[in-house]
Amino acid sequence: MNQTSQTLLDTVEIETGPAPEWTVLWLHGLGADGNDFAPLVPNLVRKDWPALRFVFPHAPPRAVTINNGMRMRAWYDIRDMNLANRADEAGVEESIVQVEALIAREAERGMPASRVLLVGFSQGGAITLAAGMRRTTPLAGLVALSTYIPMAERLLATLPAVGAAATQPVFMAHGQFDPVVPYQAGDMGARQLRTLGFDVDWHAYPMAHQVCDQQVRDLGDWLTRRFTTG
User: GO molecular-function annotation terms (predicted)?
Assistant: First the structure.
């Protein structure tokens, strides 16, 4: 796909029918790319749903410190495994700008923010939460899988009045045996969001750093409610 601006990322797109009524913008995890979750679409989509446009962007390649500086697709550098210092702030900020550019492109294509769902797994989920918490125009919902709030203390300390952002419903899911992003980090993120006034639908599964069939079904139920009430 051609880029229409310097900040617009290349994407993989799947439309489930003509004239899509909703957009699902899905951010992959570290080292993957936009193709990672595309195969999930047939298992997730239900026959009674409206036509959807799935947009799977590719994060830009960057050096990742914990992987000996190896370049790979990443939404931000991971400096160490300590969650408080894991994400580099500049990378997070850059990725938020890139995600906002994709949301703006959806508006140009006739898809208002109220019909855009922002989804992310692991690193992508961290960007989903960081971007969603700052929104002044609410999205249709946020989905954060196997992830945490990056730079949580700094973000929460500098966050302006949440206001409209807290009207965005949130689906969060985490593996109880996750060796990459500890379960406690995801649970803490959900509790922090609830403190800010977000309606968080939290799910825990007996799995590692992954997606399971029950999680896909639960997410499908949650999405059905979004499409019905939207």
Answer: hydrolase activity
Q: Per-residue DSSP letters for 155-181?
A: HHHH----GGGGGS-EEEEEETT-SSS
In 116-125, which positions are buried (b, 16+ CB within 10 angstroms) versus exposed (e)? bbbbbbbbbb
From the list 188, 140, 199, 134, the residue with the least C-alpha distance to 161 is: 134
Tens digits of residue pLDDT in 4-20: 445 699 999 999 999 99
Q: Do 207 and 176 touch, CB atoms closer than 8 A?
A: yes
For the chain, give every domain's residue range.
11-229
List the catalytic residues.
Answer: 122, 178, 209
Tokens of 186: 């995801």
pLDDT per position as a tens digit, 21-49: 999 999 999 999 999 999 999 999 999 99
What whole-number distance in Å separates Cα of residue 89 and Cα of residue 183? Answer: 23
How does pLDDT run across 78-132, given as a tens digit for each residue?
Answer: 987 766 667 788 999 999 999 999 999 999 999 999 999 999 999 999 999 999 9
CATH topology for the 11-229 domain? Rossmann fold (3.40.50)
Specify the pTM: 0.93
